Amino acid sequence: MNIIKQVFSVFEVNTYIVYDSTGECVIIDPACNTKQEQKILIDFIEKNRLKPVKLLNTHCHLDHVFGNKFISETFSLKTEAHKEEEYNINNAVHAAEIYGVKMDKPNPIQNYINEPDKIKFGNSELDILHVPGHTAGSLVFYNENEHFAVCGDVIFKGSIGRTDLPGGNYETLINQISLKLFPLNNNTILYPGHGSETTIGNEKKYNPFLNGTYV
User: Fold this and answer.
1) CB atoms < 10 A from the CB of 186, how many?
2) Rounded to the nearest 5°, which phi and psi values hold at 130?
3) 204: helix, strand or coil
4) Rounded (10°) CA dihedral 183, 196, 143, 76
5) Which residue from 19, 53, 97, 172 has the highest number of Cβ atoms inside 10 Å of its Cβ?
6) DSSP 3-state assignment of 27?
7) What is the CATH architecture of 2-206?
């Protein structure tokens, strides 16, 4: 599989396009919120002759769903996310107003996904891990054979997702990272919702929020 990161919006959200040799791809957390950003994403898809078949959200905070409506309507895709993200996606426009940002109202979640569902496209497959704590419905998309996980705002290089918004819980997040992510291979690359990539092994050793929590 190929994983392409595009960084969009004032919140600098990582949007991921994951595709294989068939050309089928999934778009994870489309954050394109301007015509220019939308063009960047579309240009890449067209240049590489990709066929988007899934619109996935790790979670539905406003910054991660900026481009949902555009992607959904452009490629006739259903929004797929955890059921517990209904509050966040329904509240996204109001949250954007608080930050002084305009956005199109995203479509509602049309396909609920959760652990142990699998995301299938082309010749590829992604496992789903439910890792609540940043939000109640935070999901991680994981492939064991290729040692990577798209983890949204669950964990960052040297940090973790904030837990002070509705559905967040610090203790839950720490426990779930330890239970769901840290048992993965140390070489597993983590592709977060903001910032640079890291690995499971690196976060076990150096993440100040998690050091010593893994047994």
Assistant:
1) 13
2) -90, 115
3) helix
4) 140
5) 19
6) strand
7) 4-Layer Sandwich (3.60)
